[in-house]
């Protein structure tokens, strides 16, 4: 939307003028063209009657110019625009310099020329309009009531010149300064004018943000646009347009921060603006287009084609149909439609339909339409236009997707995009990354993983030149502070994935290491503490694998293994790590700096507090825009709370002895985590794979030369349903676990009953592999993990450290015989609304067996209703939680993974709800989750965060969690539970007894299986599935494999 003008200057001296002005004012109220026609007729009559020497004559001409211009806007008749310019020019010509009315007449002529520019795109008209507005402002006396209007109109024209001139920063700064002056000079009771000026200032601040990437400009743009809405009454004609602009601003901030509240508020504003707009209103196409853009962003997050993508396409097509062929926004809307059709192309499976021309693939047709619209958009855009580069880049992307035969043209358009974007522009880095990607694609061939692995030895000089250019562009992008952090990280990822080709072969290892460390630091910037967990999860998807690549580069460049380990600790597990930080024991700070500790706890409580909800009844009475404003104000307060929290943390770190407060673990911290047994971090990257082994003696690295990234990926994809097959377990032993155990000296089964312990911290796709069960179980000789050591798992070393700190603080330190809390038994033998798989024949038998053993151990048991509120309440007085039922690992949003209680459809007990729970004051001992996939990460983009039900229960305060990596057999669940609790009955409720109980139970069931293995493809009992939509049972070869222990 172009910023709004505040009208022209109307003077009246005679009855004819009086009548003409009165009719014009009626038109402004009624918007009926008949009033405007009559205003023009009466004013023409006044002009005819006046002698040219009459003092009213130039006023009549100037008024007539305004009326013609308004009628042109209303009807589109070009003759009115011609008359508007001519009569305004005549009025200025006969007005001498120094005349007090000359500035107003200059402004009217400027407005007419600006309007003509919007039609003919002749920059001479716009340049002259600016010159006239500058003269009007310069010749208007200070204190003149009309000066704010003149400043606003000047700013409007300067902003348009900035847009048309491919980003002239000087013009933009002048426009912002003029608007700031205008707002300051406008009386407080002129709410309409002040509101419009604030809206215009929001537009220009956003333009500067787009140009320079300065986030304070974006935040200020949102603030002043929101203020503009509060000043304008609900029925103001410009309110909808400004609301649409606020929607755009919020959408822009979402694109940078990925805070979903911004996007949801933007969509809400756009939808309400659409509902309040008459289909014939001139703003209707703009509002449709704005809503389509916001829905596209929501689709990118949710991948919901029906709810977001298809409506966005429909709204954009309607907006285009309503847009005149010469309208300045037609190119923008065509470009948007092209992008939406590209999204549809990526989303749709290969389908065919019969049409008059025969069989046409719908997927390909979507791409062809997208390319056609993108070409139309760029044809309508002048090369010096500020959006030309972006549209060139859009076309380049589409051509690249169309196949290798279009790649050369795609690269040409990508080069044009870069050439037309000046250094320091916020989008330049993004265009550079895209161009680099296409250059590498041309070298390695048309494939989905073009940037992931380069081997250049066999390539031509032309190919080497392309790679050299790609490296140059990526290095420029990664160091560009004008772009957002996400773009720099994308460039960094490309460089790190190809570190061997780009750096190591050329002796530039230190440069690769420096980039890697910069990327690790950037991860904390994209997910600050004040972000909600779902926003953190979404944005951290873009950082998946970066920490593993950084660790690999550290090892490849000869750095001490501690640096590799610290990269992994800082760049992985950000969500859980942030929550651990906020729940850290700060007794030391309280003792020495009680004021700082008090501030920290106050801010911590605010950040931990759930988002407030608007009462439904009050929301119905609340003005729609003010409701959105209330929600946004809460988000702003949370952002400010996060800023204050960082200040307090930095102040604490500045105190003697607290320099490491809430920082990633130091070298000594990492080594201390191995006090009770080695910690093995398995790092998988494109460059190399290694085991980082932590023992009290230090940190060492063991290259895993028999696996690579592609091996692990192929195993995860091809053998996912049969991860517990004999061949998989043997592969894990031969390639990973066996070499690690040999390195540790775990070479045989302990003869003295003193079983060594090992904690596994896998990365990448290995997070779902059964490392504890690796081995040649059908052979003799103890060539398997179960016969050599007791295995436990952890998302990170920081998690181990946090659990140990609780233990060392004396919280639930041992068997605590005086602990009178309950063993909470949850039995979901029948799960409602789960067709075909809702009944578990053995679930009741399992909890009955556990209950019987609990009675024998003198543990009190309770069995609350299996609803979320009842269960959460029961956890407050819980020592052990045992759940027998179904689990769901959400493959799209891991935070939505949940246990299937009775109310799972309406109020599921999700990972997110568990992360909001803090039982640390009196931590429970064990959560036994006898349900499928309670320890699985079902989303490949979230493997670095290890967000699943087991880690959530551990963070909530449970000392130990027994979970599962995939589906479990209903009957075997009973056997496993009985054996585990028998072990606890025998050895007591200690940390060592719990891990040993699961280990020996697994060995017992393994031995039974060895004697009578389950044939592949044969499933005798119901499984407890996580993927509820899966149509058939999956064969489990070894039902004892998926059970795992988390804890210390």
Automatic annotation (TrEMBL):
Spell out the Pfam families in the cross-references: CHAT
Any signal peptide, and if so, which residues?
A: none
Q: Where is the CHAT domain?
A: 729-1047
This chain's protein is named CHAT domain-containing protein
Q: Can you name the source organism?
A: Cercophora samala
**Organism ancestry:** Eukaryota, Fungi, Dikarya, Ascomycota, Pezizomycotina
């Amino acid at each position: 939307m172009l910023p709004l003008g505040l009208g022209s200057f109307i003077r009246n001296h005679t009855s004819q003028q009086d009548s003409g002005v009165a009719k014009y004012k009626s038109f402004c109220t009624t918007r009926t063209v008949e009033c405007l026609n009559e205003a023009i007729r009466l004013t023409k009559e006044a002009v005819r009657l006046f002698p040219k020497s009459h003092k009213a004559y130039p006023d009549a001409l100037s008024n007539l110019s305004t009326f013609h211009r308004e009628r042109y806007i209303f009807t589109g008749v070009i003759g009115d625009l011609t008359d508007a310019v001519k009569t305004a020019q005549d009025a200025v010509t006969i007005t001498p310099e120094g005349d007090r009315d000359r500035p107003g007449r200059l402004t009217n002529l400027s407005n007419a020329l600006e309007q003509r520019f919007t039609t003919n795109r002749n920059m001479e008209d716009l340049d002259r309009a600016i010159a006239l507005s500058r003269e009007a402002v310069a010749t208007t006396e200070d204190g003149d009531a009309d000066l704010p209007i003149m400043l606003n109109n000047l700013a409007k024209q300067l902003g348009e010149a900035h847009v048309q001139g491919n980003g002239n920063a000087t013009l933009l700064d002048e426009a912002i300064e003029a608007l700031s002056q205008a707002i300051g000079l406008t009386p407080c009771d002129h709410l309409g004018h002040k509101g419009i000026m604030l809206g215009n200032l929001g537009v220009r601040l956003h333009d500067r943000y787009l140009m320079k990437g300065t986030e304070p400009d974006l935040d200020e743009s949102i603030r002043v646009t929101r203020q503009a809405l509060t000043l304008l009454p609900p029925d103001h004609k410009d309110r909808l347009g400004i609301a649409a602009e606020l929607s755009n601003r919020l959408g822009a901030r979402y694109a940078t921060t990925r805070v979903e509240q911004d996007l949801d508020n933007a969509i809400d504003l756009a939808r309400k603006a659409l509902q309040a707009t008459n289909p014939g209103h001139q703003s209707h196409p703009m509002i449709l287009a704005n809503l389509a853009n916001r829905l596209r962003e929501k689709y990118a997050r949710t991948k919901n084609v029906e709810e977001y993508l298809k409506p966005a396409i429909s709204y954009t097509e309607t907006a285009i149909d309503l847009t005149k062929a010469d309208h300045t926004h037609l190119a923008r809307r065509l470009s948007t439609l092209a992008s939406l059709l590209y999204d549809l192309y990526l989303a749709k499976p290969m389908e065919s339909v019969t049409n008059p021309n025969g069989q046409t693939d719908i997927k390909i047709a979507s791409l062809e339409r997208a390319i056609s619209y993108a070409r139309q958009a760029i044809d309508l855009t002048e090369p010096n236009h500020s959006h030309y580069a972006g549209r060139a880049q859009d076309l380049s992307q589409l051509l690249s997707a169309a196949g290798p035969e279009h790649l050369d043209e795609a690269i040409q358009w990508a080069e044009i995009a870069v050439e037309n974007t000046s250094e320091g522009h916020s989008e330049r880095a993004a265009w550079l990354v895209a161009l680099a990607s296409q250059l590498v694609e041309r070298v390695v061939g048309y494939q989905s993983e073009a940037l992931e692995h380069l081997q250049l030895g066999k390539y031509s000089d032309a190919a080497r030149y392309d790679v050299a250019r790609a490296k140059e562009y990526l290095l420029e992008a990664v160091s560009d502070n004008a772009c957002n952090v996400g773009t720099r990280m994308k460039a960094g990822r490309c460089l790190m994935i190809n570190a061997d080709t780009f750096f190591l072969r050329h002796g530039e290892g230190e440069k690769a290491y420096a980039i890697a460390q910069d990327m690790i630091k950037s991860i904390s910037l994209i997910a600050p503490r004040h972000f909600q967990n779902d926003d953190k999860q979404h944005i951290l998807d873009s950082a998946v694998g970066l920490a593993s690549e950084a660790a690999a580069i550290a090892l490849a460049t000869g750095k001490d293994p501690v640096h590799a380990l610290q990269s992994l600790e800082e760049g992985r597990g950000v969500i859980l790590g942030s929550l651990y930080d906020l729940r850290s024991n700060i007794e030391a700070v309280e003792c020495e700096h009680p004021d700082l500790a008090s501030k920290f706890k106050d801010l911590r409580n605010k950040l931990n507090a759930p988002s407030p909800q608007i009462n439904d009844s009050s929301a119905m009475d609340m003005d729609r825009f003010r409701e959105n404003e209330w929600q946004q104000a809460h988000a702003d307060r949370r952002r400010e709370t996060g800023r204050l929290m960082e200040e307090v943390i930095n102040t604490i770190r500045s105190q003697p002895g607290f320099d490491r407060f809430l920082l990633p673990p130091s070298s000594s911290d990492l080594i201390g985590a191995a006090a009770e047994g080695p910690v093995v971090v398995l790092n998988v990257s494109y460059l190399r794979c290694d085991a980082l082994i932590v023992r009290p003696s230090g940190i060492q690295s063991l290259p895993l030369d028999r696996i690579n990234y592609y091996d692990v990926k192929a195993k995860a994809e091809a053998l996912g349903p049969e991860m517990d097959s004999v061949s998989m377990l043997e592969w894990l032993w031969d390639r990973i676990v066996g070499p690690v155990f040999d390195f540790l000296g775990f070479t045989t089964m302990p003869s003295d009953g003193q079983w060594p312990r090992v904690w596994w911290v896998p990365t990448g796709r290995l997070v779902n592999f059964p490392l504890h069960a690796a081995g040649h179980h059908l052979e003799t000789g103890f060539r398997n993990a179960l016969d050599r050591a007791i295995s436990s798992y952890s998302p990170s070393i920081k998690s181990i450290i946090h659990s140990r700190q609780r233990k060392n603080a004396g919280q639930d330190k041992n068997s605590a015989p005086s602990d009178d809390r309950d063993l909470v038994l949850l039995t979901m033998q029948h799960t409602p609304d789960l067709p075909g798989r809702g009944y578990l024949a053995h679930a009741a038998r399992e909890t009955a067996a556990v209950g019987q053993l609990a009675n024998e151990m003198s543990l009190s048991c309770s069995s609350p209703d299996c609803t979320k509120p009842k269960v959460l309440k029961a956890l407050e007085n819980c020592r052990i939680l045992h759940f027998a039922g179904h689990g769901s690992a959400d493959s799209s949003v891991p935070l939505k993974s949940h246990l299937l209680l009775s109310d799972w459809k309406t109020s599921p007990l999700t990972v997110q709800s568990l992360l909001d729970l803090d039982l640390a004051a009196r931590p429970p001992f064990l959560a036994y989750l006898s349900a499928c996939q309670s320890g699985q990460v079902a989303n490949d983009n979230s493997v670095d965060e290890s967000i699943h039900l087991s880690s959530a229960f551990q963070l909530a305060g449970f000392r130990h969690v027994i979970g599962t990596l995939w589906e479990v057999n209903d009957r075997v669940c009973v056997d496993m539970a009985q054996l585990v609790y028998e072990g606890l009955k025998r050895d007591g409720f200690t940390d060592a007894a719990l891990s040993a109980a699961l280990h020996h139970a697994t060995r017992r069931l393994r031995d039974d299986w060895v004697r009578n293995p389950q044939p592949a493809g044969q499933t005798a009992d119901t499984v407890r599935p996580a993927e509820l939509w899966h149509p058939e049972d999956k064969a489990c070869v070894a039902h004892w494999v998926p059970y795992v222990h988390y804890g210390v």
